[in-house]
């Protein structure tokens, strides 16, 4: 077999291995509390389902345009314009089979081999993988524990910019940390982007998964709209992870290129589910609000228990459905010194299945503390209570 | 704007421009006979639709495994094993959001920059585009008019193989020509593949769109199963073009790599429609057979009228839903000397919208005759009669 050389640079989501271990443990009759994967155990709103089913009956089973159903591009442009305070039209929107495809297509459209690309670490592992797969050099920047949340290490970002730095990935409202920039931090970042002539992938997958306050988009800052491509997804807001529908939103010249990549890669996204998405954006919002209410209750339950555990410190991020507690004290207490032993001990002693810092990139120089990531999108409040209660007993005894 | 250099090598399907012209002509109140695009105007079988809708209600709205729903991989492996006479298991199958994604992923998995790749011309334009986009050298081989159908130019293939030739695209039951290899031709081709250590993308999108006889797969030849990746699609057999569902089927080592690309590109294909596909493969076949009966009637109607036109010669391929008549005589009769004038004259004088040879690659050296491509998948028999009747009057007068 003669696999292409580039495949040696292709990464993956190692969290899937955690799923497999959890499934194997459950298969032996053990109870598992699934905090490891960001899937959702909440049904898609009924009005979205009905609109998609109606579209099938209306014959929307043939191809649609490569860039997506025009009506969906229009209502999404209007929705994102209003929520971000940016003026987009349908020409700025190209529909994708999920939010994730925007990552690879952004790099294919804008990155040349050898270009350096800044990306967050800890962060979603696909950024690093796609940068290196397509011949770029992935340059990580860290996140630091602030007063009330994680923050971008802006000094580190500036330090790591070289003349070869061309692109940056910004995942504000971040997976896994929940980090959120202040406007002052956005402004400093925008200065750097202009000074060094960068283009930015704004992964806004969690923009609408927000419990307090209002989300802001980096693309709305002066001069940034022309330099940012927003990764948009229907997955979280409408509990549609398995439907695979999202979009890339940005300057027309880049969006046209991504639409041309669509022609080559998959022709178009599924036609009839785009009518479900139109209903999601324009129809009754009661069930979308209900999804947020469910998630908020889960967040508060999980954060409260985690912070009650000796040696665990957990922020309460305003957005995302992830928690990233510092468990350094809890590790010491149990005499644990590495991530793998800790994760397996938690699973096998309590049934609590989590990801760790290592599922979000290699630890950076100087990192000393230990972190786990819990997703509460796929586990109900009573199970959160029970599972984390067991974890508390295990850690404290 | 700083678009990546590789985008200059990205091609497209120029047939979409023909669609736009036809739509503009129709918008002025003119009748258009749409023979230009390979979409289908036949509903998806009701049992497939119902199974997908049931899956939504059963909560199949979250992620599924990256390689696809295990049950679908199993039944597809069984179906393809039986129809091709090859032994595949689910480990040989990775589900894709359409047939098309298999093209790009095959090259990403097996092609290194500078590798030469043989591909058919005339042929589906995405092969050449994806080869060059990902840094390969696209080397076209022609098709020649045989006695009863088009045939691969096997001598040309052998002539064009160099030490740098690593891969080949074979689209037996071909778009646009309907070409089909004999077993003897398959065997000669297999010899070349072994002699020159090639791997082959077998685009079998039309394997099940067959009216007489039985389709054969090149992957079934001795030594070829290990060297072939089959592009499979649900689009045509079950009139599911807009659902976007297909698969790559081949050696486990390659399929594992493509599944890893899935993790990076789109996580997984839409979850619930895979249950529709399971029903399509294992449930009642009445409607799938009906689709074939409809298409056969259309083929015969179209071929009969085309062959009745002075200066037009059209084969009657046993498979695909395309016709590729030689219209050299008809061009001369009307004093037409170029494709664009001819295509526009047909559209504006008769409403018949077609693609031409040029939508399937640049003409090869020595090509003298003129061809058009008609798709009969998206136009009913009465419209075929009426439209081609008008074309006959136009050409003969």
Secondary-structure map:
The structure is a homodimer of 397-residue chains.
Chain A: H1 15-27, E1 33-34, H2 46-57, H3 70-84, E2 93-96, H4 101-110, E3 116-120, H5 125-133, E4 137-141, E5 143-145, E6 150-152, H6 154-160, E7 165-170, H7 183-195, E8 199-203, E9 228-233, E10 246-249, H8 252-265, H9 273-282, H10 286-308, E11 322-323, H11 328-333, H12 339-350, E12 352-353, E13 355-356, E14 372-375, H13 381-396
Parallel strand pairs in A: 1-12, 3-4, 3-7, 7-8, 8-9
Antiparallel strand pairs in A: 2-10, 5-6, 9-10, 11-14, 13-14
Helix pairs in contact in A: 2-9, 3-9, 4-8, 10-13
Task: Characterize the structure shown.
2 copies of one chain form a homodimer. In chain A, helix 3 packs parallel to helix 9. Chain A has helices at 15-27, 46-57, 70-84, 101-110, 125-133, 154-160, 183-195, 252-265, 273-282, 286-308, 328-333, 339-350, 381-396, and strands at 33-34, 93-96, 116-120, 137-141, 143-145, 150-152, 165-170, 199-203, 228-233, 246-249, 322-323, 352-353, 355-356, 372-375. Helices cover 40% and strands 13% of the residues of chain A. The model of chain A has no long low-confidence stretch (mean pLDDT 97). In chain A, strands 2-10-9-8-7-3-4 form a 7-stranded mixed sheet, with helices on both faces. A 3-stranded antiparallel sheet of chain A has the order 11-14-13, with helices on one face. Chain A has a two-stranded parallel sheet with strand order 1-12. With 397 residues, the first copy, chain A, is an alpha/beta fold. Chain A has 13 helices and 14 strands. Chain A has 2 domains: 5-43 and 287-396, Aspartate Aminotransferase, domain 1; 61-282, 3-Layer(aba) Sandwich (Aspartate Aminotransferase, domain 2). Chain A starts with 14 loop residues before the first helix and ends with a helix. At the A-B interface, helix 2, helix 4, helix 5 and helix 8 of A face helix 2, helix 4, helix 5 and helix 8 of B.
